Amino acid sequence: MNEILAKRVLTPVTKLIVVKTPYVAQKAQAGQFIILRVRENGERIPLTIADFDREAGTITLVYQEVGLTTKLLGQLEVGDCILNLVGPLGVPAELPEKGTVVAVAGGVGVAPVLPKCKAMYERGVNVISIIGARSKDLIILEDEMRAVSHEVHICTDDGSRGFHGFVSDKLKELIDSGLKMDEVIAIGPMPMMRATCEVTRPYGIKTWVSMNPIMVDGTGMCGACRVTVGGETKFSCVDGPMFDGHLVDWQEAWRRANYYRDEEKAANDHHCQCGGGK
Amino acid sequence: MAVKDRVPMSMQDPKERARNFLPVALGYSEEEALAEASRCLQCKNPLCVGGCPVSVNIPGFIGHLKKGEFKEAIDVIKGTNNLPAVCGRVCPQEHQCESKCVLGRAGKPIAIGRLERFVADWESRQGEITVEKPASNGKKVAVIGSGPAGLTCAGDLAKLGYEVTIFEALHTPGGVLIYGIPEFRLPKDVVKREVDYVRKLGVKIETDVVIGRTMTVEDLFDDGFQAVFIASGAGLPMFMHIPGENLNGVYSANEWLTRINLMKAYQFPEFDTPIKRGRKVAVIGAGNVAMDAVRCALRLGAEKAMIVYRRGRQEMPARAEEVENAEEEGVEFYLLTNPVRILGDDKGNVTGIECVKMELGEPDKSGRRRPVPVKGSEFVMDVDIVVMALGTSPNPILAKTTKGLEAESWGGLKADPNTGRTTHPRVWAGGDAVTGSATVILAMGAGRQAAKDIHEYLASGRTDW
Ligand SMILES: Cc1cc2nc3c(=O)[nH]c(=O)nc-3n(C[C@H](O)[C@H](O)[C@H](O)COP(=O)(O)OP(=O)(O)OC[C@H]3O[C@@H](n4cnc5c(N)ncnc54)[C@H](O)[C@@H]3O)c2cc1C
Ligand SMILES: Cc1cc2nc3c(=O)[nH]c(=O)nc-3n(C[C@H](O)[C@H](O)[C@H](O)COP(=O)(O)OP(=O)(O)OC[C@H]3O[C@@H](n4cnc5c(N)ncnc54)[C@H](O)[C@@H]3O)c2cc1C
Ligand code: SF4
Ligand code: SF4
Ligand code: FES
Question: Which terminus of chain B is less hemmed in, N or C, by CB atoms within 10 Å?
Fold first, then answer.
């Protein structure tokens, strides 16, 4: 169960794995995620299903090593099994059938954007993608995105490739240049999603974001994943993770995501001191 | 060596136990158990049995116990109760078996729960239990959820020869016994032992499967299961919908307890899941869940651990014993007090709760006197963690994803109370998923009834409904 069949290092801190999990692959749809645990003492963390192959019974996960669990996951090699993996969780994204959609992705956010672009591209939506990263070596899944987009714009914060600036700035440029779009999907770090929403807000362009709050069970049981959307409390794991970005209370979301900052650091330090043992 | 008074059970000292997760009640020694058993009158018409939702043959097992026949005693209990080590610890005996014992009329009833626990613990000390796996009858039944209702139904059906698979959403089986009830009241190795027993009967347990997501109920039928028992519990937390509820430091009791019990956050950083160890923790509510939550807060090192409850002492729904235990450990009670707003600092962390004092007015629908706010009595409590223990309701995921399966407006699945039959042919349901939060023993009873009815249905060869 949950065997890693393939692994690719996309950037020094971003990895892609293909995991054998037939039941999840059978039901997965764009926008859904899984929760996994890598060891007996381990934490449950959510990762988006970046791709799936029902025939092969596999799903693809792309993750950035930001803390203890993602680092431990990064140490697993082809042939290793992930201890626990449950899904698909969350509601599938409501994707349009036609028109023009701009997909804006920052950093590892390209991974969750990819299955949505693929689904829309296959049904004939005009997909325009903007993908960005701090610098050119950190751009991931470019070929995969080109295969499912009619147009791809690359952005880097340091200007080492493509557009010099944030993905949200590029989006603004496209809007100002007169590009008509029906919807925007923005996925990536929270500040990037928030900035993108501020760009589209004055134009009233519907903007979907994928919230990534802290989660525990992923089935609606704990409420850790609360986000305020349009003044109402939602549980991201069962009501989301996709929400209308113009209605999200970003300040609250940002604070909640950082609640365990000190503990996360402590866990990492503790692990390093123990020499990476179990 | 008959004794007159109920033999007390030794407990960890309140001051000490308030700071550790070790068991609070230490159990009877052999002598103590024999002494307590000797008080039982072995009634011809034992009233105690009528107080037990699964009709454990109480005089039967106590009779063996008196003679030191522990093996026979456990066999008698297991005839009707698959989870004696659990029930002996967490059944509200004072409202059930013990409330009916004749000795209660003039003195203290027999400590039936403690004796049950003693016998079950005795068995566990005898090493690995060997169970004869019954021969298969070739029929497959699926059970959704591995709490007491699911485990009981699965165990009973396995004994009858069915090939049973339990599907569990979490990574560890046991339901609330694992993620909700804390280690100091119900050690997790006790639960694990009971789960292992069900496994030994031949039941397969597939963890990490959310029915309604990973597979649907229809998929189970397509996979050859002939009947499905839903025992998915009542896991959805309620909030108060007051301002400040999404501040950092406001937990649902479910999240608080899940982090502590299932994820072992109290052993952080040996375990990876963190939890905030508050200095001043307020738990809102006064049921069993609230008592567990507030006692966990003490054990995580809180200087002040408080219960905030809008009604009075008489109205508290928690077991009297648990309230007493909490009080001894130093929990403070703010009764007739209702939170109206949670206050936070500029970082979004909780700093206090604004509360209003309440007084009791006319009785409401539940027969309890309705609390009404006292004008102008608002005050601020200084706290850094708030745990909402306001109750839970069934998760809608199965009703939503299963055509023909109907639920009440509050979420409970519609099911015949005597058989567990739902509105969907070939689907049964029981436990908290049907009743809303209740008790371990009632969930077990429902699992047992459903197993009986499923057996009757499948043995009859009927395919209509
Ligand atoms: C629905 C969803 C989909 C996601 N998809 C992806 C993805 O495809 N690729 C990817 O790289 N990341 C994804 N994330 C984020 C990923 O879950 C976190 O990076 C991961 O949990 C970090 O764990 P850690 O132990 O390595 O780091 P930690 O040191 O524990 O945490 C680093 C940061 O990750 C966040 N985090 C920590 N624990 C959790 C948790 N249990 N749940 C959610 N966030 C947490 C916190 O904001 C924290 O500041 C997703 C999150 C959600 C909610
Ligand atoms: C903190 C706390 C303390 C308590 N203390 C006591 C006590 O002292 N005495 C007492 O008698 N009772 C107590 N109770 C109540 C008692 O625990 C419950 O009534 C009992 O556990 C209900 O059993 P169940 O089998 O119906 O459901 P649960 O024990 O809730 O088990 C349901 C299981 O189903 C799983 N599940 C849910 N949905 C799905 C799905 N779609 N697919 C797969 N799996 C799913 C859940 O993950 C869970 O493991 C307490 C409850 C709590 C929360
Ligand atoms: S199962 Fe519970 S109610 Fe029944 S005899 Fe045992 S302790 Fe009493
Ligand atoms: S009613 Fe009390 S005394 Fe009589 S058999 Fe039951 S436990 Fe014993
Ligand atoms: S993660 Fe627990 S309710 Fe969403």
Answer: N
Q: What is the pLDDT of residues B267-314, one digit of tens each?
A: 999 999 999 999 999 999 999 999 999 999 999 999 999 999 999 998
Q: Are residues A183 and A165 in the same domain?
A: yes
**DSSP assigned state of B239:** -
Closest CA to B427 of B396, B406, B400, B397: B406
Q: What residue numbers bound the domain in which A33 lies?
A: 3-89
Confidence of residue B465 (pLDDT cuts 50, 70, 90): low
Q: Same structural domain for residues A74 and A138? A: no
CATH of the domain at A187: 3.40.50.80
Residue where a domain terminates, one of A161, A180, A207: A207
Of the bound ligands, which one is closest to the alpha carbon of residue B62? 4
Same domain assignment for residues A202 and A226: no
Q: How many domains does chain A have?
A: 3
**Which of A89, A107, A123 is where one domain is finished?**
A89
| A275 assigned to some structural domain | no
* Residues of chain B found within 8 Å of residue A255, distances taken between Cβ atoms: 248, 347-348
- Are residues A209 and B384 in contact, defined by beta-carbon separation less than 8 angstroms? no
A260–chain B Cβ distance below 8 A for any pair? yes
Of the ranges A199-213, B126-140, B230-244, which one carries the lowest mean pLDDT score? B126-140
Tokens read off for A185? 């999907």
Q: Is A20 on the interface with B (CB under 8 A)?
A: no
The answer to ipTM > 0.95 is no
Q: Determine, for residues B169 and A238 on separate chains, whether the beta-carbon distance falls below 8 Å.
A: no
Q: What is the DSSP letter of B8?
A: P
B249 chain-A contacts, CB cut-off 8 A = 259
